[in-house]
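Minimal example, chain plus aspartic acid.
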Amino acid sequence: MLRRSLLAVLSLPLFAALSLPGANPAQAQTDYPTRAITIVVPFAAGGPTDTVTRLVAESMSRDLGQSVVVENVGGAGGTLGAARVAQARPDGYTLLLHHIGMGTTPSLYRRLSYDAVGGFAPVGLVTEVPMTIITRKNIPANNLQELVVLIRKEREKLNYANAGIGAASHLCGLLFQKAMDAPMTTVPYRGTAPAMTDLIGGTVDVMCDQTTNTTEQIRAGAVKVFAVTTPQRLASLPDVPTTAEAGLPGMEVTIWHALYAPKGTPEAIVNRLSRALQVALKDEKLVQRFTDLGTDPVAQERATPEAASKFWQADILKWRPVIEAAGQYAD
Ligand code: ASP
């Protein structure tokens, strides 16, 4: 009840601030695009957000008839890349592909150089991705229960890698540490690609990351996996138990990605991008690769500005009371 009324109160200014595309249809360019488009990934190259974006960019470029270039602007939990796009010209040539951090940043960061809610025009949702709890391969634990015991006992020695405050790996880590009741020392990276390199090298110990980054390393035996964070097991990793099966019921988290343009981008351009995104998400090669990595592209009707906007608003509202109750902010 309290939670419901809190959400209702919080929703008013927030929804007013969120922008839908098309402030000025007169600006719409029907010949768009006439040159290369850049999609900013707010994390390091080679990581999960980067992997998703490169597949989407390749397919979108075919539909749009122009190159779609990926630029990695990692750091500060994704806020550096997001700032770059919020402050770019709203002409459809600089876009952002970001994850759940768009839902948490507005509450986690109180002093940003850009408007984390009103600075963007959502183009469409892209995918939902499960997370996996993984460790360096030689950790002396063989299931999640043993890992929890080990972390509780040796948490001064064991550390947790993440991609900065507000990143998916950070949120999953918070849930994991809360479920274990054992806070760990965290080591922040510009993305989970470099974190994975260090996990494989054994210089960090524990991580929770998207299957788009972990599936191949798990299959290769380069890291040890303990659980997937979804209610059901994954077809791509059928032997890996869910968090509930492994002994941490309630520790569930799925990461979502969406594509954004800067606020003020003409409606015709946002809609053209949304159509190209919908085509990309049906591309056989993309679907196959997503499936291999344990994720699914969203259904066509969710790859739209309206669906993305609604989902994003709901996610901001979902995380705000959680973050406020925890009282842990990034600044
Ligand atoms: N998986 C990262 C995260 O924790 C982001 C990335 O590197 O794509 O949010």
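The chain has eleven helices and ten strands. Residues 109 and 331 are 6 Å apart (CA to CA).
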